[in-house]
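BUG: 3D viewer hangs when loading the predicted structure for this chain

Environment: internal workstation, default settings.
Expected: structure renders.
Actual: progress bar stalls at 90%.

Input used:
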Amino acid sequence: MLGLLKKKPVDKLVEVLGKEKVKVSLVERKLYSYDATPIPIERAIPSAVIFPESQEDVEKLVQVCYQEDIPIFPRGAGSGLTGGAVPTVDKGVVVSFEKMKRFSVDVDNAVAFVEPGVITYELQQFVEGLGLFYPPDPSSFKYSTIGGNIAENAGGPRCLKYGVTREYVLGLTAVIREGKVLRTGSPVLKDVAGYDITKLFVGSEGTLGLITSAILKLIPKPKARATALVLFERLEDVGRAVTEIMTSGVFPSALEFMDADAIKAAEAYKPIGLPKDVAAILLVELDGSVEGVKEDLQTVERLLSRMGIEVKVAQDEASAEKLWTVRKNLGPALANLKTGKINEDIVFPRTYLSEAIPKLRDIAKKYDLLMVVFGHIGDGNLHVNLLYDKKYPQEEERAERAVDEVFQLALSYRGSITGEHGVGLTKRKFLKWQVGEVGIEVLKGIKAVFDPKNLFNPGKLLLE
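Structure tokens produced before the viewer hung:
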């Protein structure tokens, strides 16, 4: 009789992949049921965590999952903030790509061939040693993976000048329905053959298939870089200053904004001597040739001094790095202010920032909440943090109502509900507000082509 018993789906995965690649212990299953999302979200404990090591492994696991109707939840480093890597049903499996971390670089053609588990920082350090540059730099770049960055179309401060992850993905290999292998793009800069499926996969949040490798564009490494700290006595001057810089012929590699509460939080977390009596600060990074950076820096100083705004230039690389560390540490710094946080990365057209930022403050005042605002102000991408005390449910409820108004405000200016964090679980209901009924219909149609059984990261991006 034992020989007639039907094998469990997980047993089939063990059979085709081996025990060392399919983990079923409760501890591991619980650990891989979380990502970095700071708010309570629906989650489930997966039936297994799978660690593929090759393209062949991924094909096999998708074949079994499609045969057995097992939901698949892909995962990079778990650093996402919208629940994108969180399993939502108990019978699903988490697929962690942390062991697929090989890459190679073709210097002559300035491209890299990268598996999804490669750490972004490690790739950047390697290619810079070759005189090349991979610009996308999300705050999590020292531990996030290329696969996760591609799935979320990650951004970062340098995206003002260089663009988001999408601009650097020339081609992909992905495993889609029934274990079929899809190859898109090529290691060339010009390729207009057919629909651009490569770009469709970038930012698809793991809902269309599992990315197993990518061809990334690299560019020449800038020869020089400079950072300036701009101090504002009035919040309304920030938008004007940004407009002045961006219309002057100077193209900064980054323009990062921190309001007064962000400054205080950063100084309380790891003090470096930032002034606490200003309304806001702006970090301006310039890069390019040595002479070009020097000239651009003088232009920025001249423009802002005319406006009565103080500019301090970092005198060396160590000083500049210290300033950027403050910006990168803002996420954990805010945890010291309140026990609860809702962090949304909305986008406004840049010309409306001076008008929109005070309106964000009005929303915080209306709901009696502490709001901390910082972000990539050069491209209009603001991180709006609503802080509350978890001990008081009414505060969390007010924060959730405030979020609705924050998104409504962004969309009223023809902005976006997300600039780099993605939709995931936390923003699904708002996606329809932005793309409309027809947009949702088209997105669902695309999903059905690649994943008719809805097994790839179900419940993400689109409401079921």
